[in-house]
Design brief:
This protein is an alpha+beta fold and 172 residues long. It has one domain: Alpha-Beta Complex (Peptide Deformylase). Helix content is 27%, strand content 26%. The protein is built from three helices and seven strands, in the order H-E-E-E-E-E-E-E-H-H. The strands form two sheets. The chain has a five-stranded antiparallel beta sheet. The chain has a two-stranded antiparallel ribbon with strand order 4-5. Bound molecules: zinc ion. Zinc ion binds next to helix 2.
């Protein structure tokens, strides 16, 4: 078991476009294991590799829904998003102490590869759809605070500004 440091906003690794994984080797399996360990230790429901400083297209999900308690996906991609949207509160291990409402498509279809190398298609709604979208955003350098309504942006601005101006522990 290896816990990794979770990178916090405004760490630049969180803003990078993550690289696709070409080969699912032992290195990738080790990253996935560390992601699960770190996510569970921090009580997260999802994690993306850039959050532990690895700019690769890997996500892990752990929600209380059959088949998705321990899901990892390599090179995940949203192939369809519903026009219908839903608003719900989100938080992020990389943006601690901030919770805000985010509007997203209610349903998505996601393609990806499992750690065993099989292609999967996930037809997601509810919390699963939200977590998958949040984590896939991380692979594209997008954070949930980028998706806030004007009202939510205004409300959270003081805390976000505070994080922007505070030196991150790694740069101390
Ligand atoms: Zn996040």
């Amino acid at each position: 078991m290896a816990l990794r440091e979770v990178k916090k906003y405004p760490d630049t690794v969180l803003r990078k476009q993550a690289a696709p994984v070409d080969t699912i080797d032992d290195g990738v399996h080790a990253i996935i294991q560390d992601m699960f360990d770190t996510m569970e230790d921090e009580f997260g429901v999802g994690l993306a590799a850039p959050q532990i400083g690895i700019s690769k297209r890997i996500i892990t999900v752990s929600i209380n829904e059959k088949g998705f308690e321990h899901l990892s996906l390599i090179n995940p991609e949203i192939v369809h998003a519903s026009k219908e949207t839903a608003v719900s509160e989100e938080g992020c291990l990389s943006v601690p102490r901030i919770n805000a409402e985010v509007e997203r498509p209610r349903k998505v279809v996601v393609h990806g590869t499992t750690r065993n190398g099989s292609a999967v298609e996930i037809d997601a709604s509810g919390l699963l759809a939200r977590v998958l979208q949040h984590e896939i955003d991380h692979l594209n350098g997008v954070l949930f605070i980028d998706r806030l309504s004007e009202k939510e942006k205004k409300r959270t601005k003081p805390e976000i500004d505070d994080m922007t101006h505070r030196p991150s522990p790694s740069s101390r």
